[in-house]
């Protein structure tokens, strides 16, 4: 039986899928320029290498309240012929193969589900292993965007870029819509830097020589983790302690039906262990057969780093945390240490074999 390929992603604690035929590229959420003339779910546009890309928040399309935007959010760009749209997602997962027999459209046929049927943004639901996926309808999304009055956006966006130089007065900011108004100053700088990078003529995915890193905070210090080992980020909730385990084993957590063991790597880095995990986050990593959640204070950013910016650890320093650090690099006027995660799990005494 023929199978179809779906890129899976999460949005507002739900799991979605979209046909890979329509997926053009993926990048981390940049600063958006709000467009008052557009429908509310068109939350803004970006200048993507000289072309205007409208960006949608499907939470608003489904009549949900948007929970706000985070640095770890991404934009999935969908394209059909000459029409493109970006949709904001919380996490991007793997591509799954789904057969037609696993897809049902009956739940949505002839029904008004939170106002979605009018726009037909939902194609159906699918069973994939133990998960239930909501399958989006990219054709309807693209047709909807095509009807929006965005023709005059490019001129106004270019004028804004030339005039403001990113130093608007408080009065000007108060007079126009602001993207992600609850973002901190440092978060806003990251969103803006991403928008600047996407505006460049070079293709945003031409990053063969760059290193993708997740920037996290452990005990107030910045650390970079190779993004290839990072599966996702998740809030920590309902942790079950494991008896007779060392202090760095925090416990188990149910992550969408998967038992995830949480570990604290601060001790390996000569940092105090985390005293409280309430309100903190976990970075889910996969190293060969090991899947674990690393506890942390926060995720600062996801970046592409030029290897030339990395300073090597001085030779002869093999004690303490330095044996688990590959190098250091500047990040927002601070220094970030780049961790050797395989070395930490292999020789850091984290893995318990009994």
TrEMBL record:
Coiled coil regions, renumbered to chain: none
InterPro entries noted in UniProt: CheW (IPR039315), CheW-like_dom_sf (IPR036061), CheW-lke_dom (IPR002545)
Source taxon at top rank: Bacteria
Domain spans labelled CheW-like: 3-147, 210-350
Biological-process GO terms, alphabetical: chemotaxis; signal transduction
SMART domains xrefs: CheW
Protein name from the UniProt record: Chemotaxis protein CheW
Organism field: Moorena producens (strain JHB)
Source taxonomy: Bacteria, Bacillati, Cyanobacteriota, Cyanophyceae, Coleofasciculales
């Amino acid at each position: 039986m023929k199978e179809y390929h779906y890129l899976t992603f999460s949005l507002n604690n739900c799991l979605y899928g979209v046909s890979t035929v329509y997926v053009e590229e993926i990048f981390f959420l940049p600063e958006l320029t709000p467009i008052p003339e557009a429908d509310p779910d068109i939350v803004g546009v970006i200048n993507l290498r000289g072309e205007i890309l409208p960006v949608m928040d499907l939470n608003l399309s489904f009549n949900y309240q948007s929970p706000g935007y985070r640095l770890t959010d991404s934009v999935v760009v969908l394209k059909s012929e000459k029409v493109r749209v970006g949709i904001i997602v919380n996490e991007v997962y793997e591509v799954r193969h789904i057969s037609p027999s696993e897809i049902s459209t009956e739940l949505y046929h002839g029904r008004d589900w939170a106002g979605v049927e009018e726009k037909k943004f939902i194609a159906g639901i699918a069973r994939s292993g133990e998960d239930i996926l909501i399958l989006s309808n990219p054709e309807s999304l693209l047709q909807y965007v095509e009807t929006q009055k965005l023709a005059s956006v490019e001129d106004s966006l270019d004028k804004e870029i030339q005039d403001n130089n990113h130093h608007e007065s408080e009065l000007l900011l108060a007079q126009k819509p602001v993207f992600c108004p609850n973002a901190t100053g440092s978060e806003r700088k990251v969103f803006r830097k991403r928008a600047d990078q996407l505006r460049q003529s070079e293709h945003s995915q031409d990053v063969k020589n760059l290193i993708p890193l997740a920037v996290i905070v452990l005990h107030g210090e910045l650390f970079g983790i190779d993004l290839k080992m990072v599966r996702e980020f998740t809030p920590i909730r309902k942790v079950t302690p494991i008896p007779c385990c060392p202090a760095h084993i925090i416990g188990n957590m149910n992550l969408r039906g998967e038992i995830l063991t949480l570990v604290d790597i601060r001790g390996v880095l000569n940092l105090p262990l985390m005293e409280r995990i309430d309100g903190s986050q976990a970075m889910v990593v996969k190293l060969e057969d090991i899947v674990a959640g690393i506890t942390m204070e926060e995720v600062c950013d996801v970046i592409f780093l030029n290897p030339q910016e990395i300073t090597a650890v001085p030779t002869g320093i093999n004690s303490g945390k330095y044996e688990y650090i590959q190098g250091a690099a500047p990040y927002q006027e601070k220094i970030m240490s780049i961790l050797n995660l395989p070395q930490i799990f292999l020789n850091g005494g984290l893995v318990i074999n009994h």
